[in-house]
Amino acid sequence: MPPSLMAQASIDDYHAALAPADRAICDALRTAIASALPDAEAKVWHAHPVWFLNGNPITGYSKLKSCIRLLFWSGQSFAAPGLAPEGSFKAAEARYRTVEEIDPAALDLWLAEARRVQWDYRNIMRNRGRLDRLG
């Protein structure tokens, strides 16, 4: 990650540090996320924009070397197709190189599921690495 993205204080600052093509992707993702999850808390967390419901991380995105990665913390449990597993827990991702690659219908489905399908990442340390299903 470029050093200019490491210390961003706000999502606006994060976007401002991106190249125009990456900023367009992040702007489109941010708009969709804010529309689908208006009650979510949005902040820069571990140097990336992340949205939380009741303190639990739901979705966020980050700049990788060749793309923007959209991550859903509980995405491996979604019924809607199109996300790739990421990591050893329940997260899944989509990667975008251009704003045109974003499928608005798929994104809407994932965001709807993100509200309903959640694993308890908020308490993962307290639970010694065990994830419990919420809801």
Largest sheet: 6 strands, antiparallel
Number of strand elements: 8
Stretches where pLDDT is under 50 for at least 5 consecutive residues are 1-7
Overall morphology:
globular
* Topology order in helix (H) and strand (E) letters: HHHEEEEEEHEE
CATH class: Alpha Beta
* Portion in helices: 25-40%
Radius of gyration: 14 Å
Strand content: 25-35%
Tell me the structural class: alpha+beta
N/C terminus separation? 35 Å
Specify the number of helices: 4
Keywords:
disordered N terminus, 4 helices, Aspartate Aminotransferase, domain 1, 135 residues, 6-stranded antiparallel sheet
Notes on the structure:
The chain is α+β, with helices and mostly antiparallel strands and 135 residues long. It has one domain (3-134): Alpha-Beta Complex (Aspartate Aminotransferase, domain 1). The chain has helices at 3-6, 11-16, 20-36, 104-116; strands at 41-45, 48-53, 56-63, 68-72, 84-85, 92-96, 118-119, 133-134. It has a 6-stranded antiparallel sheet, covered by helices on one side. A two-stranded antiparallel sheet has the order 7-8. A hairpin with a 6-residue loop joins strand 5 and strand 6 (92-96). The longest helix has 17 residues, at 20-36. The chain starts with a helix and ends with a strand. Residues 1-7 have low confidence and may be disordered.
Task: Give a summary of the structure in a few sentences.
The chain is α+β, with helices and mostly antiparallel strands and 135 residues long.
